[in-house]
Amino acid sequence: MTDHEGLPVVVITGAPATGKSTLGRVIARRLRAALIDQDVATQPLVEVIQRLVGSDDLDDERLARVTRDARYEAIAALAVDNLGAGIPVVLIAPYTSERADEQGWAVLADRFVRAGGTPLLVWLSLEPTRILDRLHARGALRDQAKVASGSAYLAQLTRAASRPSVPHLALPAQETPEVLVRQVLRALNRSASVISPWPTPCNRGSR
What is the pLDDT of residues 79-88, one digit of tens each? Predict the structure, then answer.
């Protein structure tokens, strides 16, 4: 988080199946922001590389080595372009390295600030065993190899679900999206008038 006044840049991170996309869509709607989901923005090209490499697992080192930097650069560039057009941004991606590295996060955050944004890192937290349950329940093709590995992937999840070492807003993933959205908007409002150019639509269900 930062005291810089500018357009909101909400960076939603967390382990798989913590609800990043669900939360991101609601926040983007409330802020009238561009929604940039790493999977949506980069998956078609990633699938081409998956076929070439012969792996469907994004955590496979053969695949991650050739795609990670390009995937993150693509969504950062999209965010900067939207900020340049005066549009707030909601980014959805694991950002595993950046949230564990003060220098890495500082470089990314500074890029958004220079483009006119106010970055807020949001971390959705959930116990690894519950994440594994959610992966089982959603039954996505991309999760099959992870789920099948059982305890081996649980150890990997424990690392993926570790708390960020950089400034962030921690949110319990088991809460409802509306509760989580209120906490994000409250955090954004701590920066003076950060969302004043973008009035939030009234929530008819709230009191």
Answer: 999 999 999 9
Q: Residue 115, Cα to own-chain centre: how many angstroms? A: 19
The closest of 98, 79, 77, 95 to 87, measured between CA atoms, is 79
| Position 152 confidence tier, pLDDT thresholds 50, 70, 90 | confident
The better pLDDT of the pair 204, 55 is held by 55
Place of tokens 């012969």: 54
Pairwise CA distance, residues 120 & 184, whole Å? 9
For residues 40 and 201, which has the higher predicted lDDT (pLDDT)? Answer: 40
Helices 20-31 and 177-189, axial angle in degrees (round to 10): 50
Contacts of 80 (CB under 8 A, 6+ apart): 111, 112, 115
Helix, strand, coil content of the chain in percent (nearest 5): 55, 15, 35
List CB contacts of 113: < 8 A, sequence separation 6 or more.
Answer: 2, 4, 6, 119
| Residues 164 and 99: beta-carbon distance below 8 Å | yes
For the chain, where are the E strands, in sequence order? 7-14, 34-37, 89-92, 117-125, 169-172
